[in-house]
Amino acid sequence: MLKMFQVIPSLRLWRGGPQRRFCLSHAPLNRQHFEHVHMRVGDRAELSRTFTQQDVAAFSELTGDVNPLHLDEDFAKHTKFGKTIVHGVLINGLISALLGTKMPGPGCVFLSQEISFPAPLYIGEVVLASAEVKKLKRFIAFIAVSCSVIESKKTVMEGWVKVTVPEAPKS
Questions:
Q1: Which of 99, 120, 152, 155 is the most exposed place for a label (fewest CB within 10 A)?
Q2: Radius of gyration of the chain (CA)
Q3: DSSP letter string, 129-154
C-alpha cells in the first residue's frame, strides 16, 4: 500500500544561514479542516511595556549589540540623547509580540516591514505599541504600526508591516 505524504515547507535558521527545509507528515492535512482567522479593515490591538536596564542588557547579550549608547550612562550623557536609550529593534519586538499574540494572533508570519524611529525611547518610559489593519488582500494583512510613550505622547517608532493571516482549525 502506498502512503501519501504532505510536504510542508518551513524556514529555519542554521549556522550557515537560512535554508529551506521540508517536513514529511504521515497524515495529510485537509484544508477543509482549517479556516483563516477573521480580520477586518479597521481592527486594532494594543500592548504596553516598560523596558528596564536589565531588559536592554539581556538584549545586548543575546544579540551582541553592545553599543554603549544603550548600556553606558557616562557615554550616553555626552550624546544628543543625554542618557541611555532602548534599542530600536527591541521596541520593534513589541510589534512582533502584539501581532503574534493578539492580532492577527498565533500563526501569523511577518513578510515585510517598513519602520522609522522619529524619537528615542528612554529606559523606564512606558511605551504603547499599536496596530491597525489598513488593507486585506487574500490572506495578507497590511497593518499600520506605531509605538508611543504614554506620558508624553511622543512617537518612538512608526511604519507598516505585511503579515500572513494565520489559519485556525475549524470548530
A1: 152
A2: 20
A3: EEEEEEEEETTEEEEEEEEEETTT--
